[in-house]
């Protein structure tokens, strides 16, 4: 698919990687607008095609008392406002087939969570909206297996599919990124590297997922060197107090330096 086919996407002529970036979850309007404004400023400066990311609901939680959202319609309306105010596309994840048509009224890209990417009815429902479908590779799946998820989208009459690698389980409490899988998945669809989720440390005894944000630049650099089409980075201006996935998010204050370094690497790679 052509990136330029996404409504409101900018800088597609820059020959840069594209970026899916924002908070893990929509916690409120002020925080979403604050993060979007900062990321738009940075990506416009660096000519990076940008899609704002925010979950309207969190369904995969370790504990019953974990934050799940502020209300579906309220969060989706915030995503729509971000898109309108900053003239950018947005992406959110869906968890049930009924979510597809609802979310498609508000966002430009529908994301299938890694733990649900084999759920045929969910993938088909997303595809049938006509929106871009971002398929997260299951932590338990091989890169080769993702061709079947892509085929489900295509067979539903939608050619607009991405694959996102968010790491592979390594034991019970760690993730790794196997970069051998990047060219394999790119042969099926444009491929994104989810940098921050790849650094999660799940299944902690506390019921709160850990992470290694100190490794974000290491993983992101390796992704660019290995020709990923896009990067997925969750960010927050106060990760320690974020209501979801704070342990592996990038502090928003560090985003510009990181992206500047990655753009420089990308220019070097494409000039070879």
UniProtKB/TrEMBL annotation:
Entry annotated with the keyword Transferase: yes
Compartments in which it is found: Cytoplasm
Cellular component per GO, a single term: cytoplasm
Domain spans labelled DAHP synthetase I/KDSA: 8-266
Annotated keywords: Cytoplasm, Transferase
Any one GO molecular function term: 3-deoxy-8-phosphooctulonate synthase activity
One GO BP: lipopolysaccharide biosynthetic process
E.C. designation(s): 2.5.1.55
Kinase listed as a keyword: no
Main location: cytoplasm
EC primary class: transferase
Catalytic activity line of the entry: D-arabinose 5-phosphate + phosphoenolpyruvate + H2O = 3-deoxy-alpha-D-manno-2-octulosonate-8-phosphate + phosphate
Pathway(s) served: Carbohydrate biosynthesis; 3-deoxy-D-manno-octulosonate biosynthesis; 3-deoxy-D-manno-octulosonate from D-ribulose 5-phosphate: step 2/3; Bacterial outer membrane biogenesis; lipopolysaccharide biosynthesis
Family listed: Belongs to the KdsA family.
Protein's name according to its UniProt entry: 3-deoxy-8-phosphooctulonate synthase
Protein source organism: Dokdonia donghaensis DSW-1
Taxonomic lineage of the native organism: Bacteria, Pseudomonadati, Bacteroidota, Flavobacteriia, Flavobacteriales
């Amino acid at each position: 698919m052509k990136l330029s086919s996404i409504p409101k996407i900018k800088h597609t002529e820059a020959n840069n990687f594209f970026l899916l970036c924002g908070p893990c979850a929509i916690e409120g309007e002020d925080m979403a607008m604050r993060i979007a404004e900062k990321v738009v400023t940075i990506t416009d400066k660096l000519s990076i095609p940008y899609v704002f990311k925010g979950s309207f609901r969190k369904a995969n939680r370790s504990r019953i008392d974990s934050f799940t959202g502020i209300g579906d319609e309220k969060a989706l309306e915030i995503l729509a406002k971000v898109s309108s105010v900053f003239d950018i596309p947005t992406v959110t994840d869906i968890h049930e087939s009924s979510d597809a048509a609802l979310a498609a009224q508000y966002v430009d890209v529908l994301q299938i969570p890694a733990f649900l990417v084999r759920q045929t009815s969910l993938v088909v429902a997303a595809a049938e909206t006509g929106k871009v479908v971002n398929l997260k590779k299951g932590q338990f799946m091989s890169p080769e297996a993702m061709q079947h998820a892509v085929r489900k989208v295509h067979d539903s009459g939608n050619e607009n599919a991405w694959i996102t690698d968010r790491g592979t389980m390594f034991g019970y409490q760690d993730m790794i990124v196997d970069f051998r899988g990047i060219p394999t998945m790119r042969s099926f669809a444009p491929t994104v590297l989810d940098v921050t989720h790849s650094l999660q440390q799940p299944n902690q005894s506390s019921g709160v997922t850990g992470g290694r944000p100190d490794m974000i630049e290491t993983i992101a650099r390796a992704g660019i060197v290995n020709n990923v089409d896009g990067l997925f980075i969750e960010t927050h201006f106060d990760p320690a107090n974020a209501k979801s996935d704070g342990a592996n998010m990038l502090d928003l204050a560090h985003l510009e330096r990181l992206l500047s370094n990655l753009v420089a690497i990308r220019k070097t790679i494409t000039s070879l």
